[in-house]
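If you are new to this repository, start here. Below is one unmodified record pulled from the training split, so you can see the exact layout before writing a loader.
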Amino acid sequence: MRTPLIYIVLYCLLNGCRTQNILSPIDSKVWKQDSIGCLGQRTNIYYTLLNEDEKFVGKLKSQITDNFGEANLTKQFKEGEMLYYFIKGGPQCEESFSEEDLQNWDVELMYIFINDKNEVEEMGGMKQ
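And here is the target side for that same chain:
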């Protein structure tokens, strides 16, 4: 009788540890390889994601970072946290880049707002 229980527990443990690809059918490895948008691989992915932004609402921050990688920039708010990801090449591709450069350059970003429950509340794009 214990044998089926062991298989059930083992199955749950093994499948529970896998990262769910919430970007499917997009390969998150491609997104992560272009970590700051300088390779030009994020642009098409970005526009596809914006058309499907509602599927991200309610996802946990850990699911976002598992799939997108760590955010390029973050900003803390009383109500939560904003994650920013570079989409296209810009000042961040320069060796001497600093965050102040973003205010003076045309930079395209994807933002994801994580609320105080650690869930995605909103996702979108912006040019700075």
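Two things worth knowing about this chain: The mean pLDDT is 82. Residues 2-16 form the longest helix (15 residues).
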